[in-house]
Amino acid sequence: MSAAPRRPGPSRLVLLGLAALGMAFSPVLAEEAPSAAAAPPAVQRWYDEIAVNGFLSITYNYNFNRPDSGTNQFRTFDLYDNTFMLDVFTLTLQKAVASPGEAGFRVDVSAGGTIPKAEAAYGLQQGKDFDLKQAFGSYVAPVGSGLRIDAGKFLTHFSYEFIESWDAPNDNVTHSFSFGYGEPITHTGLKATYSLGDQVAAMLMLANGWDDVKDNNTSKTLGGQLTFTPAKTATVTFNFVTGPERTDVNSDPRTVLELTAQWRLSGLTVLGLDGVYGWERGAVAAGETATWGGVAGYARLGVTERFAVCLRGEYFADPEGARTGVAQRLKEFTVTPEFKLSSHLMLRGDLRVDWSDVDSFEKKDGKSSRTQPTVIVNAAYSF
Fold this sequence. Notes:
16-stranded antiparallel β-barrel, two-stranded antiparallel ribbon, 383 residues, globular, Porin, mainly beta
């Protein structure tokens, strides 16, 4: 008679139970267990927050008057006739700010044959082929929706047009008379910007003056801006600036008022308007007030996503010669075809005719004219 099978003891039952329990939960444990090969969290370095961008502009300029001096009259940046020019290369470093408590900065450094000369401010490399176009720090103070404060050198809040950069292209290669003669280009000082709602924003500025890094007198210049956005397709901006600007003169403030407007009729078609009026006592003759003013209309007519034709017509009056140095009334009309070869590279032409009511445009052989026709071919690359 065979022996009865032996029952497993208590210890064996415990081991078998633990083994079965482990097999049942092994998929869950495998899913929850961290992978030994998982990458460590990325380390945030200070330079990861800094954006680097650039803008390069090259032109060929031809003046049909063929001036003896080889220079165009009353132009802002397109100064030289019958010349290929490296207008500018601008490198931008910035840490943008948006929310309350954030701090950042922006620095734009420009080098080239034309634009740095014209944009240079008194007291900082004036007249050189290199310019520190902007350099300012920013802080958004935790006041209401956020009070932005900028301190340093920055571009003016004036004008429908810009000194071009990677984030501020113009429709035309050349600039208006109002841009070059009726308004400032840069300021050095403080400005505070605050949003008053979805449709209104305000800015107040205290600066050394017009295009001054080092003040040329002991008075300061006050400026401001109100921007209205009544709809997503329309913007209206009112600008002002006032303060003494002549060297060692602390009276007779130079005051300028400006109204700009933009209407985006479609994704490809945009209309714009810029009106400016300024005055300054003692600018030409002691005790007398000189005035100047102008109006310009803009139209960007997009044919396709890559091709557009941009138009500008302008009238600028300088009856005492306070701004251009000649008592005159100027007009100009500009046609700029634009073709984008890629998202970074753009080719433009600039066909422009200037008129004056006096013979203020230079020609060859010592002659002068009331008209100045020019043509420009421009290549601009941005990143």
